[in-house]
Amino acid sequence: MQPSSDSTGVHRRRGRPIVAVVAVAAALVVWALVVVTRPASAASACGTANVAAGRPATASSIESSRLSPDKAVDGDGTTRWGSTQGVDPQWIQIDLGASTDICQVVLTWQTSYAKAFDIEVSADGQSGWTSLYSTAAGTGGAQTIPVSGTGRFIRMYGTVRATRYGYSLYEFAVYGGQGTGPSPSTSPSRTSPSPSTGPTGPALPGGGDLGSNVIVFDPGQSSSTIQAKLDQVFTQQEKNQFGTERYQFLFKPGSYSGLNAQLGFYTSISGLGQNPQDVQIHGDITVDAGWMQGNATQNFWRSAENLSIYPVSGVDRWAVAQAAPFRRIDVHGGMTLASPNCGWASGGFIADSRVSGQVSSCSQQQWVTRDSTIGSWKGSLWNMVFSGVKGAPAQSFPNPPYTTLSTSPVTQEKPYLYADASGYRVFVPSPRTNSSGATWTSGNTPGTSLSLNQFYVAKPGVTAATLNQAVTQGLNLLFTPGVYHLNQTVSINRANTVVLGLGYATIVADNGALPMQVGDVDGVKIAGLLFDAGTVNSPALLQVGPAGAGGNHSGAPNLISDVFLRVGGAGAAKATNALVVNNNSTIIDHIWSWRADHGSGAGWTSNPSDTGLIVNGQNVTAYGLFVEHFQKYNVVWNGNGGKTIFFQNELPYDPPSAAQWSHDGITGYAAYKVAGTVTSHEAWGLGSYCVFTADPSIAAYHSFEVPVNAGVKFHDVLTVSLGKGSITHVINDTGDAALPSNVTPHNVVSYP
């Protein structure tokens, strides 16, 4: 049987009949015999090396992080992969690193075995699977299966379980013909899972150190030592809005006291436990705006994740604007989202968190909270959105302006770094539908755990060619803190690849490159990265799916999570578009796509960019869209079946005149345009603001432009003039004018 969890999340085993224990012991003995003394006939027909040993392994699901797929290729007969219980089908897949002639597979099952399963191979691990063996009468134990076929990827695809639990393998061994296949690792649990040669040269190693800008704290260190380092980085980063320094703080599991971690620009703080409760900060994690006399509207690019906070005063302060996510946090107390005197604040995002006390928004103009639990909420200004939040205020827009959805339609939480006894790992949460509340409050977050050895650990100076080789080789990508200049495209064409950044790792597009593009494949995760345009125009900064992509990815959606895109601010820059989403069923979970309105190179001709987000894919779902200041439509949505929950926008500050910012006889471009061909689209909680500093006489015609049909529905939409310029209508020809003489929202509760 497989372990279950009680209500406390502690793993307990159900009582087993003695016969079951004996069966497990027998299976282990058989496994040992298979590994140590393979039959002579098998040895003569196949090579003697297990070419799957230490190779990257992925799975359709895991029951818990200690039952991850790499445990089935680690050479240890006491560890195992285990799938989610009670669900068919399930699979475990191994990347052999190169096309390999395969002649034998040895599966060593735990008592939860497959009664019906296939052994399949594929050239790319995404499609074209060919069955080498199929049975509906699996026996469990140690199964030695002669096969004949060639492929780089091999998987066990289980369709019928022998028990009511899941599928579980101690080992998945693969043997090739004499002299074929990649060289095995001599110590698969400790060394890179790479083959001896890669597709474009010597194989790249997986794993490795995280670099000097990842600062790891241990509960054995003194509070004064930890505080001194936190203060040193904050002093450097407090006002460093467009600098190149990047930092990631990591706290090992345990309890810490007497700390106040103040976070400046490009600074992330995270716990290294599997769950937030594993790291306890008895102190504060603080974002304030003393550097701007209480004005928090420029507190960008910082984050907190995966830990518990016990605030000293009972209330933690998180006074932020855009690109400052607060994820997987357990706050034992309340929160305030602005400076002590309220001041100014504009925008923010909470997800997968629990706040036991009250959240006070104070001066926040808009905010989105998703899939969390809160004690209560106090305050509102223009646009407060709650999706799948337990304890959220009831729907009441516009008085007060609360937009509340009881559940979120389809979500997937951001992958995150953590550590266990084997070292660093990355956990990839599973998708959810119609979800509410955090993923971890009733036990471990469901999902898949990947060893750091399955990642190429990138550092500044790496080339696009090397990153492409790593992906082709079967590795995921982990970007350590720093600035990366890429003059070619990094192509993520392998399904289920994870691309994760630490400490606001920043990718700069050089020489007009499109720095990253995803193929028309399942399950790619892009998270925790900042993309910067360069001085030569790029067609886009991130493209998810090729033009015309048509694959059905509903079962394994692509995810864009805490991804920020910037044109200008750090210098003159150009990009036609920031983010283009072509793949169907993609989930966008918190982006800030920003054409700079201040900083270096901010000007109508010095940082030109048309559009912040273009969605061509079908059934794309977006939470927390912050898209601002682009020169044409800020968002263009061309695909059917789209959903947006929360949108915040400022139109460009700097159009030189109405004449130079018009099209088709219309003054201005809408902030959010749904194409006339779209027949189904729905959006909740959207706000657009204007402050035309170059020509305050501009009167934009409207901020939302949509086709008029029953399948296109907008809820709780508003516009505001911030004192310069006006917006004549809210959506199409509907809604009152937002005028500079009256800085208040003009609302449309539903459209049409």
UniProtKB/TrEMBL annotation:
Protein name (database record): F5/8 type C domain-containing protein
F5/8 type C domain location: 41-177
Please, which domain of life does this record's source organism belong to?
Answer: Bacteria
Annotated Low complexity bias = 181-203
Residues of the region (Disordered) are 58-84, 179-215
Which stretches does UniProt call biased (Polar residues)? 58-67
Q: Which InterPro entries match?
A: FA58C, Galactose-bd-like_sf, Pectin_lyas_fold, Pectin_lyase_fold/virulence, SACTE_4363
Q: Which Pfam families match?
A: F5_F8_type_C
